[in-house]
Design goal:
Blueprint: E1 13-19, E2 22-26, E3 32-36, H1 40-52, E4 55-59, H2 67-77, E5 85-88, H3 93-112, H4 123-143, E6 149-153, H5 160-166, E7 173-176, H6 184-187, H7 193-201, E8 205-208, H8 211-224, E9 228-232, E10 236-241, E11 252-257, H9 264-272, H10 274-287, E12 291-298, H11 305-318, E13 326-333, H12 340-360, E14 368-372, H13 377-386, E15 389-392, H14 401-409, E16 416-420, H15 426-429, E17 434-436, H16 441-453, H17 456-471, H18 475-485
Parallel strand pairs: 1-4, 1-6, 4-5, 6-7, 7-8, 8-11, 12-13, 12-15, 13-14, 15-16, 16-17
Antiparallel strand pairs: 2-3, 9-10, 10-11
Helix pairs in contact: 3-4, 4-5, 9-14, 10-13, 11-12, 11-16
The structure holds 6-O-phosphono-alpha-D-glucopyranose.
């Protein structure tokens, strides 16, 4: 299949996200290096694009390079033998500071994760957001052919459809929001909340992760417009906005609840690969008879890392019999390291790890094994398989694909998932995972204890059920559903 394929009944798929799956870096001797990007968005969409083909428009993670240079490097390093094409959007240092780190990650990200007190509502950030969204629209207008289906992802690019329309591009354009949508009470703190809502109305279809996100979005619409009528549709709701005396002519919108998933078969295959199984043998030797609790999180204050460490400390205090028997293996993947809250978060978690290890370490046993670097997939799969329990405890998360990947990697179905009720994944897995409120350190500690002593039969029953849910609704099913719901082939 040609890389320009990605056909939806003869039309190409044009994926758009801030970050491309591949980041570029200049080496000291002026050559180029590529790194795979981290995060749920890329890990879910990359396998889909590999299978379908098409074009992916986004930023390759580097500052102040000309678009032509980036295109040449991507053509040589990636496009030449990939199933789909990467099309670069070039960002300047100022764009990165004000659009990416600023408006996207110091305004929308904290606001949409219910942390509005840490938001920096800088007017310059908003200007940059509008400018860069216009730039993305401009690149899409050069890449997209008539009839192509434009699919925009995530909170960095809300204004893209509006800007496309302003450029006279009328391809179907849909949006998927990977992160949560907050309540109106929180959302309306944003000085530009009305502009964001109007921009969203320019999409033909919007997908969100959970029913709660959809309800919150609807709540925001009813705050802005006097007459909002809803009707149940096949994948969500159809919304009609009545006459509100505003100049916009857009009056209809469809919004669907479409929880994202993973490439289940690929994860299972990776877990069974020779590379991964060799590592399993090696890692098992390190842990002998210990119970291994695993955590894998991008560095982020939304992931509840300090709360997780506090809960683990509480478990060791309350249940002394767990000491020397249980180890928490926490892998943190570096992220957004120039944003001040992320720097603080890193300092806080490293201080806590040191404090807890200082309190409990005994000869031959360290309670928390902490790493701060990215990891290749085979190694990650090995860690998942060696672990007995996964501790996935974000304070707020759109979905959390680590929870799903951990389950897919449990080929013997023997593993326990402790999951935050505030992760989108809880809507699907909540009946079978051990659900916790991550702020409730005591009951999280009780769940850790419960997981350590759960009978094998119950562990397998719960894990089987979760694996089946994920297997029968994988990333490919998610894309098909989204395209159907969005009317991509109409
Ligand atoms: C989350 C977001 C993605 C983002 C990823 C990594 O998963 O939903 O849009 O790409 O985090 O964050 P970064 O800032 O490195 O792109």
């Amino acid at each position: 299949k040609s890389k320009e394929g990605g056909q939806v009944d003869g039309r190409r798929l044009v994926m758009v996200s801030n970050r491309l799956p591949m980041s570029l870096e200049r080496t000291e001797d002026n050559d180029w290096q590529t790194h795979p990007a981290a995060g749920g968005l890329v890990s879910a969409l990359d396998p889909v694009m590999r299978r379908r083909g098409g074009v992916w428009v986004g930023w390759p993670g580097i500052a102040d390079e000309a678009t032509d240079t980036l295109r040449d490097v991507l053509d040589a390093r990636y496009n030449a033998d990939s199933a789909y094409r990467l099309e670069p959007v070039a960002l300047t240092r100022d764009d990165i500071a004000d659009f990416y780190e600023g408006f996207s990650n110091e305004v929308i990200w904290p606001l949409f994760h219910n942390r509005f007190t840490v938001c920096r509502f800088e007017p310059d950030y908003w200007q940059a957001y509008q400018r860069v969204n216009r730039e993305f629209a401009h690149r899409i207008s050069e890449v997209a052919r008539a009839g192509d289906f434009v699919w925009v992802h995530d909170y960095h690019l809300v204004n893209v459809a509006d800007e496309l329309r302003a450029l006279g591009v009328h391809n179907r354009a849909s949006f998927f929001q990977h992160i949560p949508f907050p309540t109106a009470d929180i959302f309306c703190n944003l000085p530009w909340w009305r502009e964001i809502v109007y921009a969203l109305l320019s999409y033909d279809f919007i997908g969100v992760q959970t029913v709660t996100d959809r309800i919150n979005f609807l709540d925001v619409l009813t705050t802005l417009f006097d007459h909002v009528e809803t009707q149940a549709g096949e994948y969500g709701i159809d919304i009609n906005i009545g006459d509100d005396g505003l100049t916009r002519d857009k009056q209809q919108l469809r919004i669907g609840t479409l929880p994202i998933s993973i490439d289940y078969d690929h994860i299972e295959r990776m877990a069974a690969s020779e590379d991964s199984l060799t590592k399993v043998q090696r890692f098992r030797g390190n842990w002998r008879d210990r119970t291994v609790v695993i955590g894998v999180d991008r560095l982020d204050y939304t992931k509840g890392l300090p709360e997780k460490f506090e809960a683990f400390r509480e478990a060791l205090r309350r249940y002394p019999e767990l000491r020397t028997r249980v180890t928490l293996q926490q892998h943190v993947v570096p992220s957004r390291q120039r944003v001040p809250q992320y720097v603080e978060q890193k300092e806080e978690i490293e201080r806590l790890v040191g404090e807890i290890n200082g309190e409990f370490t005994e000869p031959g046993w360290v309670p928390i094994h902490y790493s701060f670097h990215s990891m290749d997939q085979a190694e990650l799969m090995a860690h998942y398989q060696v672990a007995d329990i996964a501790l996935v405890t974000p304070l707020k998360d759109g979905m959390n694909l680590v929870a799903k990947e951990f389950c897919a990697a449990q080929r013997d179905s023997d593993g326990v998932l402790i999951l935050s009720e505030f992760a989108g994944a809880a809507a699907e897995l909540g009946d079978h995972a051990l659900l916790v409120n991550p702020h409730d350190v005591v009951s999280t500690a009780e769940r850790i204890h419960e997981a350590c002593y759960m009978a094998r039969e119950e562990r397998c029953r719960r894990m089987d059920a979760m694996r089946e849910i994920i297997r029968s609704h994988n990333a490919f099913d998610w894309v098909e559903e989204f395209l159907r719901a969005a009317g991509a082939n109409q």
